[in-house]
């Protein structure tokens, strides 16, 4: 049996982090409206 | 344009019957049967597509690819396949009924959204081609071949020697003088892919409840939004690869050798569709050896592997020969490789030492791949798989995975490994996400199955469902944003000219080019809009040692006009070809310029 109890929180946290970053990238790429979005996009694209 | 749209629907329905008729006939001759109506229709269509595409390719080699011969070929197969149309119609009617019953059982809102998305793609499939790659080579090279009556060395188009099975079928549309047919054919291939996903949901997971969410996810992936209903070949390549794997599974379940031959032929179709289709061969080869009882290497298995490798390679051979004659390479295009060229910039990192180079090109590329492909658009030509792959598939470690799903995972892993290998040696800046379409399509039902299997983790399951819903909603909004102009044009049924003027900023200048005297030779800077040019053209194709050499070459080719058409950076167009000091602007619009060269340059 796999030790799923230990794995679950790690996988959930990882998924949430990846999802939040992706949503931010998606919105700033396809809907770059407003100065905050543009600035966020510039900042994100430095890393991604 | 309304008449052309109507005729393209009729023509693609006709082609569907021609394809399925041929497929049905061949299946009867080889005594191959499938219990699933859906799979049967997919394989019939694939076989017909293969036969027609290869015969048109043969016409091109024999220099008889003319309107007359192509239409004669279609009429011949229309008559040959006629006895099977009744069966095809009854199969289609049954599938539609099944689809409706699946839709009724699903959530109404999600079913309605799916219908709207498919309708959106259908409308795109009924409009003239405007997509970048279609105008650049998928249609422009085929148009030149048809005008010439067969293959010739289009030396000024670097993409002219790719394998072109799909494009050979697009030639039918051009032969019928209606290029909307090519777009509708692409939509048909997209619908076939959706049908394949539905089949995977029932065949692999035995759960019809997966179909609607899987299709919604599929339709809202950014890579699908960009490519479905366009005259592109990535979706067909993945489609043939997956069908080949399914047929191979049937063979491994204890069917006759004809199933193995069929699987090999469909693999050959993937290879004939796109250079990356060759990646299907190692996947098929590996499947012969893994997950079967008994010793790993036996004589029958070696024979099976030899069939799976040799038939696709033989099918690809004409394209390799054509490429070798024109380019002196079988890889369709001369790629810059790291071999003998010093160190490149793997993943955009400038490396001064070998150690740094292999750290990024090897270790980081391989171990970071799941993340770079999912959340790093800068690494993959501006696109990603999206978060659902990397956010949801790790939950597979927490659920029990049956044997058939493990086989899919191995196939996906092997394909992915090959993509990474290609990146390492050929595309160090990162491959486009559409090259990994096979993984996108296989992963779609797998994502939904994973979430539905997480019943023992209800809280995590809720979070993940929310992610899926969020991505579907965002993808739908993006779909509307990207294509609302096209849908509006469809609803107002403008003329082709008005449509192009609205969608393509360079079209005003193209219209001027098409009004020039008949024998005027134009040089576009890039291949970007070649398909729309009605005058002879030679796209800028080489670099010159000096301005004099350039002018001499221009004079030899009788080039009188320059079309400055850099779409990616229009600011450069105004100063195109500074070597020619005496040139006048004939027309300009939206940053695109048409220059007339002085009589004595």
What's the layout of helices and strands?
The complex is a heterodimer of chains A (48) and B (601).
Chain A: H1 4-30, H2 35-47
Helix pairs in contact in A: 1-2
Chain B: H1 2-30, H2 37-61, H3 67-81, H4 85-105, H5 108-124, H6 132-138, H7 140-148, H8 165-175, H9 180-203, H10 211-220, H11 222-227, H12 234-252, H13 257-273, H14 280-289, H15 299-327, H16 354-367, H17 369-375, H18 387-392, H19 403-425, H20 437-452, H21 458-492, H22 496-503, H23 507-514, E1 521-524, H24 547-556, E2 559-564, E3 583-589, E4 592-597
Parallel strand pairs in B: 1-2
Antiparallel strand pairs in B: 2-4, 3-4
Helix pairs in contact in B: 1-2, 1-3, 1-9, 2-3, 2-8, 5-9, 5-10, 5-21, 8-9, 9-10, 9-12, 9-20, 10-20, 10-21, 12-13, 12-14, 12-20, 13-15, 14-15, 14-19, 19-20
Keywords:
heterodimer; A: 48 residues; mainly alpha; 2 helices; 83% helix; elongated; B: 601 residues; 3 domains; four-stranded mixed beta sheet; 24 helices; 4 strands
């Amino acid at each position: 049996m796999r030790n799923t109890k230990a794995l679950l929180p790690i996988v959930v946290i990882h998924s949430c982090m990846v999802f939040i970053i992706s949503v931010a990238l998606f919105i700033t790429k396809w809907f770059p409206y407003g100065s905050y979005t543009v600035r966020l996009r510039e900042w994100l694209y430095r890393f991604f | 344009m309304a008449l052309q749209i109507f005729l393209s629907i009729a023509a693609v329905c006709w082609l569907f019957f021609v394809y399925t008729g041929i497929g049905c006939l061949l299946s009867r001759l080889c005594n191959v049967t499938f219990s699933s109506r859906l799979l049967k229709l997919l394989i019939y269509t694939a076989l017909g597509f293969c036969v027609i595409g290869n015969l048109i390719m043969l016409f091109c080699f024999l220099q008889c690819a003319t309107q007359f011969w192509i239409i004669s070929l279609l009429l011949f197969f229309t008559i040959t396949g006629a006895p099977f149309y009744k069966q095809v119609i009854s199969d289609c009617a049954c599938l539609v009924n099944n689809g409706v019953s699946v839709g009724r059982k699903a959530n109404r809102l999600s079913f309605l959204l799916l219908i709207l998305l498919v309708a959106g793609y259908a409308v795109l499939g009924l409009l003239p081609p405007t997509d970048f790659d279609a105008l650049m080579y998928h249609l422009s090279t085929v148009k030149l071949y048809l005008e010439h009556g067969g293959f010739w060395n289009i030396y000024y188009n670097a993409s002219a020697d790719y394998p072109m099975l799909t494009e050979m079928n697009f030639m039918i549309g051009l032969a019928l003088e209606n290029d909307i047919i090519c777009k509708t054919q692409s939509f048909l291939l997209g619908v076939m892919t959706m049908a394949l996903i539905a089949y995977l949901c029932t065949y692999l997971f035995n759960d019809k409840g997966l179909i609607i969410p899987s299709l919604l996810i599929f339709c809202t992936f950014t890579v699908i939004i960009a490519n479905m209903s366009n005259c592109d070949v990535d979706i067909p390549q993945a489609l043939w690869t997956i069908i080949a794997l399914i047929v191979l599974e049937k063979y491994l379940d204890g069917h006759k050798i004809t199933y193995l031959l069929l699987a090999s032929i469909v693999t050959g179709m993937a290879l004939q569709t796109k250079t990356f289709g060759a990646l299907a061969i190692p996947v098929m080869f590996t499947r012969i050896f893994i997950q079967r009882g008994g010793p790993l290497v036996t004589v029958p298995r070696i024979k099976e592997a030899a069939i799976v490798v040799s038939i696709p390679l033989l099918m690809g051979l004409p394209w390799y020969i054509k490429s070798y004659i024109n380019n002196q390479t079988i890889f369709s295009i001369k790629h810059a490789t790291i071999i003998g060229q010093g160190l490149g910039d793997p993943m955009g990192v400038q490396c001064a030492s070998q150690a740094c180079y292999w750290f990024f090109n090897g270790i980081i590329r391989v171990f970071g791949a799941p993340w770079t492909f999912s959340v790093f658009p800068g690494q993959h030509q501006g696109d990603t798989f999206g978060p659902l792959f990397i956010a949801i598939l790790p939950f597979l470690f927490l659920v029990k995975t049956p044997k058939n799903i493990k086989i899919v995972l191995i196939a996906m892993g092997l394909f992915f490994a090959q993509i990474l290998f290609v990146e390492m040696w050929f595309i160090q800046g990162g491959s486009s996400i559409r090259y990994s379409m096979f993984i996108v399509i296989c992963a779609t039902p797998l994502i939904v199955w994973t979430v539905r299997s997480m019943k023992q983790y209800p809280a995590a399951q809720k979070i993940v469902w929310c992610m899926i819903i969020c991505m579907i909603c965002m993808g739908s909004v993006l779909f509307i944003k990207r294509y609302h102009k096209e849908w509006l044009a469809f609803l107002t049924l403008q003329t082709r000219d008005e449509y192009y003027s609205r969608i393509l900023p360079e079209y005003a200048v193209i219209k001027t080019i098409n009004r020039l005297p008949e024998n005027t030779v134009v040089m576009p800077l890039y291949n970007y809009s070649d398909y729309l040019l009605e005058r002879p053209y030679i796209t800028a194709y080489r670099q010159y040692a000096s301005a004099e050499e350039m002018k001499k070459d221009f004079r030899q080719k009788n080039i009188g006009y320059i079309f400055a058409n850099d779409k990616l950076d229009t600011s450069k167009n105004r100063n195109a070809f500074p070597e020619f000091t005496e040139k006048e602007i004939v027309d300009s619009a939206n940053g695109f310029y048409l220059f007339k060269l002085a009589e004595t340059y």
